[in-house]
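Re: [help] complex structure
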Amino acid sequence: MSFAQSILEALESLNGNKMRSGLTVLGIVIGVAAVIAMLAVGNGAQASITGSISSIGTNLLFVFSGSADGPPGGPGSRRSGNNDRPLTLTDAEALADPFAAPSVELVAPAIQGNGTLTYAGENTTTSISGVTPTYATVRNMEIAEGEFINEEHILGRMSVVVLGPETATTIFGHADGVIGETIRIEGQPFRVIGITVPKGGGAFGSEDNAAYIPFTTAQARLIKKGTRDEVDVIFIQAISAEAVPLASDEVSNIIRQRHRTPIGIDDFTVFTQQDFLSTFATITGVLTIFLGGIAGISLLVGGIGIMNIMLVSVTERTREIGLRKALGARKKDILLQFLTESSLLSLIGGIIGIMFGWLIAFIVGKVAAATGNNFTPIVGTDAILLSTSFSAIIGLFFGIYPASRAANLEPVEALRYE
Amino acid sequence: MDLVIEARNLRKTYMMGEFEVQALRDVSFTITRGEMVSIMGPSGSGKSTMMNTLGCLDRPTSGEYILDGESVAEMNDDQLASVRNRKVGFVFQSFNLLSRLTALGNVELPLRYAGVTEGRRERAQAALEAVGLKDRMSHRPYELSGGQQQRVAVARSLVNNPAIIMADEPTGNLDSKVGKEIMNLLLNLNKDLGTTLIIVTHDPNIAEQTQRVIRLRDGELDTTVDDKGRKK
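Output below.
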């Protein structure tokens, strides 16, 4: 029998038992839809995180004080030893030396803290960074209105502040036309000189909800530190994305020399965007596999459903099998007939499941958008190929046992079956 | 003489639990091409076993069976399937049509398994015309009367030009009038096309219409009867 013919015949036979075929297909539909939706959500989460990490700049390096053992732990793991020396402003200045660190383009030391901002009875608590003029360039920050902190502000320890749009909206009710207003930070008056362009949520809290003041002002009046020129973090911009590893080495060498640390026991940590990316890629990768695995189990259950129905079908059609054999059907004809049916069941289920899973992913994306999350599930071709081939294989695998049972029936016994 | 069936010392034994049942004990006979033979015998006489063996649905335990020049006793399952497809047409008591297929589809079935693609439809149509169902080709079995269903089954049995047609109680599920029509159809096919016809029955009226009766008793040929099944 030709291939097209056996498919046609299998369709006819499945059509003859619509309810049963439909329910069997449903099992596969749910399985495939779950796999597609889960992988889409996982991929979406990964893309969202990768996107927000990328937005911090591909040629950016972070230097924290304190060592990180093993995998990067970020700011939380700093100050691991008592003999650690903090990063200082002079460290930052040394890093800006173009001869010692040719791969470093810009250096932006910062000290960070939290503070309460008040204006006309409105108040909000936000993160406050004491920064230098280079900060805006290093962090890819753009000014929507007004200006950023400049050398003059630094030298004069002036009480000026640049606000993120979210912070401005919280205390003023709007983000435009607030230049020149005076707000109070921890009770001290600061004049608003600029508003930054919205960047959207990031991996380290929103940069839109922040206040930036001159480094010297913060040092002197707002954020108290152990020593006078201690800094929390030094942001470094490498001359190019390719130069990031080189810059990382240069920075490490300079600080090691300055801190006189034995080799291998650094009291600081250099972090690149790539480090963040790979850390989060690992996390979301595990998440995706986990979600996909759970969905895969439902696909397996769907496959067992196919096997169950095919076994019932073989028993029910014992006489038909006997007759076909009497008319000259060979084992492989019968085998092919039942395998075609089970594969068709799972294939149809797979196709509907893909559409259904797509729909679920789409709805999840809509819900996320409606609740203000920057998150879009991504239905990848790999997920589609994976679940289609997986469901076809399941159809074949779970069809083989019932089909071979049918093929091996004795014609005499089968014809006598009531 | 042109022999279409040569059975020599056919034996068939089954194991029923611990007991060995001898369904056929050393049966030998021949059937000439174009002959019309009935096989008779009370239940338990080995009638069904004989029909299964002659129809190549089952192999004898020992002995030799030559069907249309091919020795089938030692064949494997797929070879037997091929012999059934090419050389044997079956007509069953309960018609055994596939309800999902039309009359035409049912008749085409043996040709499909024979791998015939060209002219398959035409041959099936010709077979249906030969049994007088020209205007019922696209009907499904449940839209046909019992007699019409059996006609479809007869058309299916002869569509592949088999060497023998095995009919197992072909009129058993039909009333006597329709049964007579089916018998006439079979008789005419035998007469017009020269097809060898073997009818398994316990109805003496049917056996009466065949040229020769093979009577079985306890798995052996009953030699106390003549060719018409009458006591000598």
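The first helix of chain B runs from residue 47 to 54.
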